[in-house]
Design brief:
Blueprint lengths: L3 E2 L3 E5 L5 E5 L2 E4 L6 H8 L16 E6 L3 E4 L3 E4 L2 H10 E2 L2 E2 L9 E3 L8 H23 L6 E6 L1 H12 L6 E7 L7 H9 L9 H4 L3 H4 L8 E3 L2 E3 L12 H21 L3 H6 L2 E7 L7 E4 L5 E4 L34 E3 L10 H13 L15 H4 L3 E5 L3 E3 L4 E8 L8 E7 L8 E4 L1 E3 L2 E6 L5 E9 L10 E8 L3
Parallel strand pairs: 1-8, 2-10, 2-11, 9-10, 11-12, 12-15, 13-16, 15-18, 20-27
Antiparallel strand pairs: 3-4, 3-5, 6-7, 13-14, 16-17, 19-21, 21-25, 22-23, 22-26, 24-25, 26-27
Amino acid sequence: MAVKPLRHVVVMLPGITGSVLQKDGRDVWAISGQAACQALRTLGRSLDELRLSGDDPGGIVADRVMPDAHIVPGLVKIDGYSAVSKMIRETFDIEPGSVHEKRPANFIEFPYDWRLDNRVSAEHLQALVRDRLERWREHSHNPNAQVIFVAHSMGGLVARYYLEVLGGWRECRGLITFGTPYRGSLKALDFLVHGYKKLFIDLTEVMRTFPSMYQLLPIYRVLRVRGDFVRVAEADAVPNIEPARALDGLAFHREIEEKVDEHRRDAEYLERGYALQPVVGTRQPTLQSAVLDQDGEVTVERTLPDWMDALLGDGDGTVPRASAIPIELSNAYRDSFATERHGSLQCNQSILEDVRGRLEQMQVTGLAEVRAPEESPAAAERPAIALDLDDLYVIDEPVTLRGQLVNVERSVGPLQARIEPVDAPQPTERTVEFALAPDGWRVEIEGLVPGLYRVEVRTTKGGPWAPPPVHDLFEVASAP
């Protein structure tokens, strides 16, 4: 396929934990393509250097985007960024650049220190865009060149703050986000409150010092206290949640929301503003609410708050469906919906084909808006596979996968899982078949050696009535 001209500058932003962090030229966070146990053993005491004291980064800088799969048990699983980067490189005639080289470029991966307040990362993004966009305009003799952001998860929040609060919208043609938690995530609440301890893995106390973690907390009423739903930042005495940080995390989102409201009364913004295209993961079991009981204990649940529409009761396994939709697009229906897990949205081939088309369309001169069609009732009821699994398994326990078929009326056969080692010393992949269980489909896999694994779940029969496959990561760890 012949490459196409790329008239604008594409900047790709990863999610939380998706950038390699260095201090004095030494990696202090770099787990790409590795199981967490192996990587954290390698990094050792350097992980303590990630701890923040106030706003001081402690000499740590973001060096590069992690291209391959990585996992932080209990918080995030990301199947890397090489697939989306490869799609852009194969589709367009690009001149690659980096944050380290001040030269003309039209494709740049933007690593950032994901520990810090996202406002700080947005200011760094602003400085990068100002410099590189001007250089590209001069180099390409295209004074109308703009920036297009492709962002996964928290990276979308960084871009949004730059665009709305820092005024970057005047230089932007489009923002495409994969599973960005515009309204926060219950998984962040679960991690901050309960932490994650299994074997020797425990980043809980370190990550509780990160302002960015508080900016991932839900900003809508999901915490039930004495029978009423309240916002986390407005609740009293939530264990392991610092009230001032939670309020500042909410204020971060309110700053964006207030600027959006202001801009939508601006004629220039309405005419020349950027196209916002969220990719929303659906049909996956996702945490939706929490309960703070009389003893001060928090329980996080998959039950949707009773004041919300029942149709919103799913998500991508990390970000609820409602949260992945920007507030101002609540009734605009510009979203692209995909039955995929959070960490695989940005490397799902069908999603990438859709994004490829949107990026191509954004190169067309005179285009006023890139807009996805409203999700029709038929599309809303498309067949899907809902997958549920743990992040981490110990070598002497079976790997248990649970699946359900959604909106499937015809026989498509049982589910089957293809297990592929990412870093484990096993030469071949393995395919196993699920068995029917009272709560759907279930399979237990034994004999996997320690390492990081990629899983794909699909039906044994294909065809137009079969749901698309769904993907995720898990780790098998050796006993301590």
